[in-house]
């Protein structure tokens, strides 16, 4: 059973998700302590490739107590090489964006991140998805 630290709530509204991946993340000690206190914001973050490595960009982890550090630094993501190659090919050829969906502790108390290959929605798509969600809610109320 995984313990979810934070979710990217705007991801499902702003993006259409096609595929999900699990990856590890390289953190400093104070960042782990801040994550245990659930002080992270994933809403504006994304993942990008730099020299065949994957990095999480714009993820805001609040400073723990009086530690001096950078809150929005790029953090390296850990994945298998064949997964990285497959993701980079899809991202380049089909124009996908890599966004984080959630960050959690797995069964072994390791911090993991769920990444998604996604494409951005325009306003019409967002309205359609809202209408579908409202219709589902109404059906659940009646049945």
Automatic annotation (TrEMBL):
One family name in Pfam for this protein: SmpB
Role of this protein: Required for rescue of stalled ribosomes mediated by trans-translation. Binds to transfer-messenger RNA (tmRNA), required for stable association of tmRNA with ribosomes. tmRNA and SmpB together mimic tRNA shape, replacing the anticodon stem-loop with SmpB. tmRNA is encoded by the ssrA gene; the 2 termini fold to resemble tRNA(Ala) and it encodes a 'tag peptide', a short internal open reading frame. During trans-translation Ala-aminoacylated tmRNA acts like a tRNA, entering the A-site of stalled ribosomes, displacing the stalled mRNA.
Biased composition annotated in UniProt, kind: Basic and acidic residues: 122-143
Main localization (coarse): cytoplasm
Single Gene Ontology BP annotation: trans-translation
Species annotation: Mesomycoplasma neurolyticum
PANTHER family in UniProt: SSRA-BINDING PROTEIN, TMRNA-BINDING COMPONENT OF TRANS-TRANSLATION TAGGING COMPLEX
Location(s) in or outside the cell: Cytoplasm
Name of the protein: SsrA-binding protein
Ion transport in keyword set: no
One cellular component term from this protein's GO annotations in UniProt: cytosol
Keywords attached to this entry: Cytoplasm, RNA-binding
Disordered: annotated segments: 120-143
SUPFAM superfamilies according to UniProt: Small protein B (SmpB)
